[in-house]
């Protein structure tokens, strides 16, 4: 059995294996012939933070594979965490009931703490502003599917570069392939945290920080928009100042390469004008759809099936 906690845990071979499994899941779904590999298994989805795509795609993935699910969708209020139970004790309890445990938590490191006392695989569905490995894997799958390659990808992350956990998880995956260039586009209040910048410098990553979206648009293969993470701000006045920093409009899209794609982990709040949805380069709903196939593959991967 394997936990999924942080994308830095994966080798290039692991990722190739996961992408291949995901492709098979997509084929099976499209053919309407999904092998019930998780028959008689129980998957627990315990979410201490709101979620639409991550939780519902994990639950759909489990159901499609023949598993049953138990779930706490508002665990901060509706589980014994509200009464003060530690994540370790909650994890030990889930071990009594489920074969695999998916956890989202607002506190960095909390899902890893849950995994340390678990004999069942634990999947990190997002821990604070730290990691969101399953999102990054579905993002990587999307880039591969759309561009037919993972080498030599120029990608711009736009918006809340400081707090985006999909960003922090996707960068190490792209670094497994040669030739990537990263642009981090944000207002000065939301620039990369120092520790992450140090990691990029130490890893000799080719990256640029800027506040100009216009400047990067013609250079990139992937435009990755992010939501300003309101829930990570301690002072709402600070949030108000930066919340509408970058709204992607048609005039921006016209500056992109013809073959570039626009991604967003969603939910979008005020980052992408909905008229852009009709542009074939708008890949964000295809990206979300890929999340189902990826999570089917990951449930099997964690259980060694
Ligand atoms: C992301 C997250 O939770 O970090 N959402 C998701 O899982 N698709 C991004 C976000 O909430 O902005």
UniProtKB/TrEMBL annotation:
InterPro entries: Asp/Orn_carbamoyltranf_P-bd (IPR006132), Asp/Orn_carbamoylTrfase (IPR006130), Asp/Orn_carbamoylTrfase_sf (IPR036901), Asp_carbamoyltransf (IPR002082), Asp_carbamoyltransf_Asp/Orn-bd (IPR006131). GO terms for biological process: 'de novo' pyrimidine nucleobase biosynthetic process; 'de novo' UMP biosynthetic process; amino acid metabolic process. It holds the Pfam family OTCace_N. Pathway: Pyrimidine metabolism; UMP biosynthesis via de novo pathway; (S)-dihydroorotate from bicarbonate: step 2/3. L-aspartate binds at residues 83, 165, 227. Carbamoyl phosphate binds at residues 53-54, 104, 132, 135, 266-267. Keywords: Pyrimidine biosynthesis, Transferase. Residues 2-144 form the Aspartate/ornithine carbamoyltransferase carbamoyl-P binding domain. The keyword Nuclease does not apply. One of its GO terms (molecular function) is amino acid binding. It catalyses: carbamoyl phosphate + L-aspartate = N-carbamoyl-L-aspartate + phosphate + H(+). Residues 152-301 form the Aspartate/ornithine carbamoyltransferase Asp/Orn-binding domain. Its EC number is 2.1.3.2. It comes from the Bacteria. Catalyzes the condensation of carbamoyl phosphate and aspartate to form carbamoyl aspartate and inorganic phosphate, the committed step in the de novo pyrimidine nucleotide biosynthesis pathway. Heterododecamer (2C3:3R2) of six catalytic PyrB chains organized as two trimers (C3), and six regulatory PyrI chains organized as three dimers (R2). Belongs to the aspartate/ornithine carbamoyltransferase superfamily. ATCase family. This is Aspartate carbamoyltransferase. It comes from Candidatus Nomurabacteria bacterium RIFCSPHIGHO2_01_FULL_42_15. The gene is pyrB.
